[in-house]
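Form 12-C: Joint structure prediction
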Amino acid sequence: MKKVSLTLSVAFLLLNAAYAQKFMTRDARISFLSETPLEKIEAINKSGSAVLDAESGRMEWKVLIKNFIFEKKLMQEHFNENYMESNKYPNAVFKGEIVNVKDINLSKDGSYNVLAKGKMTIHGVERDIEVPGKITVSGGKLNVVSDFKVACADYNISIPSVVRDNIAKEIAVHVEATLTPLTRG
Amino acid sequence: MLLFALLLAAVGGAVGLYFYNQKMPSMASQKAEMTLSAAALYEAFEADEAAANARYLGKIVAVEGQVREVSTLPDGTIKVVLDTGKDFGVLCEFDPNTKHQRTSFEPGERLTLKGECAGLNFDVLLARCALVE
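Section 2 - Result
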């Protein structure tokens, strides 16, 4: 019995080592802000997912559109029904890689400016984008912060002329997440 | 006549402003359109995501199950994962506009939570959840 449990713990150790380079979160905070002189619209999503392979730099982020929380009911309805059409396109995804992943030293606390390149899919439209970010290694975890702009027109999100002055042409997106090592398959 | 038109405009404006400023309603005050087990909801998404989206997305669903995991974000948001017997579960993110009677939950206990089905992201996600008493 002892031998079996010893074999098992060795197997687990090996398994952990194999997954040690993978990091994950399901608590990524993704917020956006549209600001014009007429109106300020903001919303936050607290359940974005992210998986990052720190060896290859490959990563994937996904957020469910209906989980963006607005203060005003009307804004949330318009966002889902008119602009994002979240019944048809329930999520937004970024699939890509950190170009300079080799700069990151996982075994030491420190902060790194990174550049991610890949494909962003919003509203069913896929586009190649580059996004800057900052990764802070702290106690074996990765804190990721990124700010970038998304132009509504790039993703075929049409804004009716009546509210054209109320909604910014470029939406400011803020991403904040703490990725922890993935310890199970 | 002019007075009437002005009055109409004022009332119209006030109604418009009222709707414009209306806050998101509390989930506690909303009725679930359907009730099912966490396992059944997850299995529907696992079997056919597009079909499950067509059926559940945007609907207020009450989901019954056993608590697998509880976490509280630094901002106080509570997340409860209901077990489905699979690798992933039904993740219920609590509603910021509901004054929750209970804020502490234990793994293993059975609960029914209602929220708006937001789709599949590893777990099936229910947004703006409240406890069904």
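Section 3 - Comments
The CA atoms of residues 88 and 123 of chain A lie 8 Å apart. The helical segments of chain A are 2-19, 73-83.
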